[in-house]
Amino acid sequence: MTAPLSGRTAVVTGAARGIGRAVSHLLAGRGARVALLGLEPEELESAAAGVPGPAHAWCVDVTDEAALRRTAEEVAERFGPASVVVANAGVAAGGPFMEASMATWRRIVEVNLVGSALTARAFLPQLLATRGYYLQVSSLAAMGAAPLMSAYCASKSGVEAFTHSLRAEVAHRGVGVGVAYMSWTDTEMIRDAQCHAATRELRGLMPWPASRTYTAEATAQRLVRGIEHRSAAVYVQPWLRGVQAVRTLLPGLVTWRARYTMGDLEERGDVTDTGLLGQGGRADAAEGRDAGPG
Question: Is this structure's pTM higher than 0.85?
Answer without folding.
Answer: yes
